[in-house]
Specification:
By secondary structure, this protein is an alpha+beta fold. It contains 10 helices and 18 strands. Residues 1-14 and 293-347 have low confidence and may be disordered. The structure holds 2-acetamido-2-deoxy-beta-D-glucopyranose (2 copies).
Length: 347
């Protein structure tokens, strides 16, 4: 799973630029007010197209994408994805039976895509399905066969090895690369742009961790860390994942657990490194911290409980989200998660 994460968010240790094209499908059941099926298409981590069952239409998410695709693209892909949506719906019913479940909230997700090293021309691909946030089945490109990590997936593997593996491999190694090359050509100026991060220090209340929050940056590669008196801190620091914003930029945060006493005795600095410029150093001072409101503790509590009613859905999203499968999911989820996490005044 780790390898896959690194792959998808595009952190690569090789010299050449690695481009990626991927799709994430999410099917859900039992979540009122939430789409039953969502598809997000990405190029280099940038959302390029979107579909959900309410919209019933695949739509472009970047201006430049419109030029990259043929006239029939949106109609053709809408037809295909409606088919996939039906397969996912039926799939969840089948899996519920297989896992002996009657009701409740369930998710079935698929991530697949390809990557291309623009210097060496080396390509790779993957496809992986997850049920309720856990690995269910994945394709092994080398052997052109499926891998079933759970017994409930064995029957699926047997079917797909015969009916689907070859076709899927063909898509990942040929068609996906074809589209990736096309997207990179048309999206060059957007994909190669550099936007610096906005960095702020946030804290819910004096006893909670201090969050160093970098947002609005592009591309997604960023290093964010805390220093104590000029030395890198690893203990008491919790670095989050890089998350996409709705506008195509990214955000990431690093939480520092520190007592008021320690803060007085030492200097803590958040350091954010990004390709767009020199490292940003934010020295932790009382003045720089943004909190929820200027009001008293009591009024802040009231504010939080009225604005941030943590519903079952949000708790669910919060817990599933951490399991990576929801990582690149729709910005609605990201915003919900961040609001819960930071309990920050949404203005
Ligand atoms: C499903 O549940 C029934 C009734 O509780 C039980 O008898 C059966 O063994 C379960 N099957 C599986 C695959 O867990
Ligand atoms: C992050 O740190 C690594 C290791 O020190 C370095 O190779 C990489 O260039 C840094 N990334 C950025 C965006 O500064």
């Amino acid at each position: 799973m780790k390898i896959l994460i690194i792959f998808i968010i595009g952190i690569h240790l090789t010299a050449g630029v690695i481009h990626s094209h991927s799709y994430i499908y999410t099917g859900t059941s039992g979540i009122p007010g939430f789409p039953e099926f969502v598809s997000v298409g990405l190029v280099d981590g940038q959302e390029v197209n979107y579909y959900d069952n309410n919209l019933m239409e695949m739509i472009p998410k970047q201006e430049w994408v419109k030029g990259a695709v043929d006239a029939d693209f949106w109609k053709r892909n809408t037809q295909n994805i409606i088919g996939t949506q039906q397969v996912f719906k039926a799939g969840i019913s089948i899996l519920k039976e297989r896992f002996n479940q009657t009701g409740g909230i369930h998710t079935f997700q698929r991530m697949f895509g390809c990557e291309l090293d623009d210097e060496t021309g080396v390509t790779d691909g993957y496809m992986q399905d997850g049920y309720d946030g856990a690995d269910f089945i994945s394709l092994d490109l080398k052997s052109t066969s499926y891998v079933a990590p759970v017994k409930e997936a064995l029957i699926t593997k047997q079917k797909w090895d015969v009916a689907d593996a070859e076709r899927r491999k063909n898509y990942l190694t040929q068609e996906c690369i074809y589209w990736l090359k096309k997207y990179v050509r048309y999206g060059k100026s957007s994909l190669e742009r550099k936007v610096p991060p906005q960095v702020s220090l946030l804290q819910t209340d004096p006893s909670s961790p201090v969050v160093c929050h970098a947002t609005g940056f592009y591309p997604d590669k960023v290093n964010i860390s805390w220093q104590k008196d000029g030395q890198d801190l690893h203990e008491d620091v919790d670095v989050g994942e890089t998350l996409p914003n709705h506008d195509g930029t990214f955000q990431k945060r690093a939480e520092l657990k520190v007592t008021p006493d320690e803060r007085k005795k030492n200097q803590f600095t958040c350091v954010v490194e990004h390709k767009s410029g020199d490292p940003i150093h934010m020295i932790l001072t009382e003045k720089k911290i943004r909190t929820n409101s200027a009001g008293t503790g009591a009024s802040r509590q009231n504010h939080q409980s009225s604005c941030f009613k943590v519903s079952l859905l949000e708790v669910f999203i919060e817990s599933v989200y951490n399991k990576v499968w929801w990582r690149t999911f729709h910005s609605l989820v990201l915003r919900t998660k961040l609001f819960i996490k930071l309990l920050f005044k949404p203005e």
